[in-house]
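Handout, tutorial session.
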Amino acid sequence: MDTRILIACSVLFFISTIAYNQAGTFTDPRDGQAYKTIEIDGKTWMAENLRYEIGDSKCYLNQQANCQEYGRYYEWSKAIGACPDGWHLPTRNEFAQLGNSLGILYSRNDIERKKEHLKNKEWEVLYEGGSSGFNAKLAGSYNQDLGWEGMGAWASFWTITKSRSEYTYWKIHPTNGGFTIWYLSWGDELLSVRCVKD
């Protein structure tokens, strides 16, 4: 291979690595809890699930120690005000931008692209230890009727976006769609929260 091409490819790889792996920390002044952060495509995300106690938010199995590992779970009405000053609950488009910048976004109507997404396990870049630094935990969710479900099976994150009467959230579900947007017609299910910097 031409040396100049090799050097150019190395530089591009280095720049790409910097663009997607600007790690940092943030301390929430409200309760003193510290969070890892990651900059992806110009946006700074919390790289841990939010743990701020507000309203009827819960810890997994209602055990306080689990909040450190999985964060708290929130109803939508509480999630929209849970992020600290200078941060906010992501919009649907911000989650879409996250997926697009990592090359894992696809239309649910594009069957062939969906097959490719699932076959290549593209969502794994978002997992804990994945190359993006987002460090998603498959922490499941809490259903008011069914109780705790999905631990180890999926991750669900609220967005601030409503579509008519429906609340929207992003879900990482390895066996059912990978990294996709989902809809709820109610807002009382408890899901995880990831804040993004203003």
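The second record follows below. Compare its token runs with those of the first.
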Amino acid sequence: MDLDECVLYKDACLAGMTCQNLPGSYRCTCPKGYYADDTGECRDIDECSMRNVCNKGDLCVNTPGAFRCDCNDDSCTMDLSCGEQCDTHTQYCRQGTCRCKHGYILKRGVCVSKCGYGLCGGRNTLCDVDSTEACSCQPGYVSYTSAYVAPCVDKNECLALMPCGNNERCVNKPGGYKCLCKTGYFLDNDVCSDIADTPYADIELVSSNVFSIGETASIITKIRTAWDRSPAWSNVAWSKDLVALSPPPPRYTTPYNRQVLVIEDFCPEDAGNYTLTVQKKGYLTTRAVIPVYLKPIMTKMGSSQYGQWTKMAVEVAFKGLWEVDWYRVSGTKRQLLLPSNNVKFARKHQTIRIRNNQGMLYEARVVGVVGERMFTGVATFEL
């Protein structure tokens, strides 16, 4: 079985050459318009040194990998046999015939640029038929040889130029490169600084982070530092669930260096993870994730005894239309409790007093409507 040396050995041929597998061997060939010299490198063929390459009176111009026939300026100036029928930008006159200049091709009777017809070939190339070198590589790309030979390949600036500074690492990218700070360093005012020598801040939550529906929620944080007592933070930003709050929420800095986020008319959709990001020149960027919770719709407050009575209470955690019903539970049966000599209600049925009845199970059920949303809750009490 024949081994494909072109696949096994990536460097079987010199740069710019094409590897061709043969039975029991392989062959390296140069691109069209080039030949291999004694050292094996590809050299440009000077077609203009050959005879009868161009028409009589035309000027032969050698180019990398090819050649072109230009109009001889003197003869073209003197050749008026075409009259004014030639386009002076794309054509020249020769013996009564309009011919396309170099870099142009005749299509449907019109000389058009060869750039649109694969003149340079390959990707990442630049084509300008009016320049001396019609083809070249885009910035950040190079040819295999000093002269242009398609294709253009990415230039590894990190190896060729070593463009990054101290404490930086170079990352090569298609057509360019990027300098990043090394591990243990961070970018501060366009300079990679050592994290160990850089001050930082701590963000502390100093308020509640549990709020009821409809109330005004104030999330208060305090920024603490070990280097100065009251740094002026130049950039403060809030986001919720990794999405920046827009428009920016109300926030301000107190003399105690606190940042406050105010949420009017708190609703269930406002609950989530809020991120506070603070920045100051010379400091590490500091972030703190602050979870904000919706207060339970109903909270079991507990029970207490007063002589012959037992008091049970629940708290409804929103403003709106709501009702609380109390039940005595016996197995799978529930008996709705109504005001009587043994049952008393207070504060819209949030609190109930029942004459002591040990071993009984009671249940509070709440139904409420806020806007267009309905909320329910259940709390149980065992005497």
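Points raised in discussion: Confidence is low (pLDDT under 50) at residues 249-255.
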